[in-house]
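Q: Is it fine to ask for two folds in a single conversation?
A: Yes, each is treated on its own. Send the first.
Q: Here.
A: Result:
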Amino acid sequence: MSAKGRFLILRRFRAGDCDLMVKAYSPYGLVKLFVSEGLLPERGFLGYMEPFNLLYAVYNQSGDVLFLKDIIEVDFFSYLCFRDYSAYLWMNSLVSFVERWFVQYDPELFNMLINYLRLNPKNRAVLLIKFKLESLKRLGLYKEDIFDKKLIKIAKIIAEEDKLIKLERLKINIKDILELDTAIDSHLSNSL
């Protein structure tokens, strides 16, 4: 029996001579999507299976692996990373965070990720912390006490600011950014 679903491609791997295995975030959480003969040009799936693309596809399920049957629609977010290398790094850092910590599907987190992938921020480090803080809030895990006293004020400023222009103008030294990032990852590893 076939079903339809949306999949945000996180990674793709070669699976045999001509097949692809795709790791994706979908309404079913993190899934493995097997694309039979996905590397063959005759099949025509390879360009659609780029990381960051959003697929609306038909699939079958066997165990915990989904088998792609057909693609209905594609949003080519992978082309956004062609702007420059830093855009690729930005998108990859978002996807890596999702791959590591978004175990179950949440429609708000999914939509938030799509919105952040579309951005081309100038101050990527601050925006990445903003994304992580928003993720913590939506997961119900945000607490100010996970940060050192000096970082609480910085985290609060980043978390409460909604205007992209103001976030891009924030001047926060890299040491504080790294400490915020480490505190968030540590909190997530202890909580999930």
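Q: Second one now.
A: Result:
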Amino acid sequence: MDNAKQIVKEYTIKEEDEKVYLVDFLTNRFTYYPKENWEELIQQKRITLSGSDTHPNYQLKKGDKIVFKFPELLEPEVDSNFEIVYEDEFIFAVNKSGNLPVHPAGRYQTQNLTTLLGQSIQGMQNSQKPIFFIVNRIDRETSGIVLFAKDKTMAALLSKLFSSHQIDKTYIVYVEGSFPSQLTAEGFITKDEFSKIRKKKRFMEQIIPGKECTYVKTEFIKIGEKNHISKIFAFPITGKIHQIRATLSSKGYPVLGDKIYGKDENIFLEFIQYGNAILQGELLRQALHSYSLKFIHPITKKVIEIIAPEPHDLKKIYR
């Protein structure tokens, strides 16, 4: 093993993962590498099991501890542009780009908003590592507003506002097809068992007995249409992972540039394996932007409205 600086991660196997081959578990659970890459990492002894070397076809047992050792250079490039669009004594909000993870995960251990933001603040203030807390998260390929609290108490208060639906959220979305002037989608999202993509979900209006389902509600208003592409506002009443994207895809209006929920999910699988994707026009990410947050400030009791202007890459869609 070389002496280059490494990122070390651990994962403990649960009961539902017993008897699965190690390489299959890694491929399905951590989708940022294809099977061949995981096999190579195991053979390079960058992945060990409970402190010992292992092999790709080892059958996992409950309690096994997988240890990952990744060299830092495996991190992909990101669009590291972001700006603070609101700040007061208790909170601040950042407008991030459409190719920047919010927090450390998978391959993105240093190239993510929270790490880069901390480095930026520390550099400006010439101080120790700053302390802040993420309140909401958006996908790597979703641009727009991410809200932060400056202490744990404020983080808890803001999280409660989100969970109790007391924060009005507005997204700008470009979708394929001629969208109706107005639409309310109320139903449930569940794992898409027909997909090759582990994290993919689908929206349905009725619960299927025996399936794990989560209630969601989103309101949509059409803003415009050009070349069979509709621009809409999305107002998620609930706030679940992939809610907007899964709902629109199931309704027949996939988000433009969406690698997972678009018409061909193989685009996502190829992107994971080769790092590229063939998308419509010049758009390299999903056309989804967190445009505004509106809420009553937990401390000052003032109405706060935070806006992140529509980014240039989305404006060019109607050029």
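Q: Anything structural to flag on that second result?
A: Two points. The longest strand covers residues 214-226. The two ends are 52 Å apart (CA to CA).
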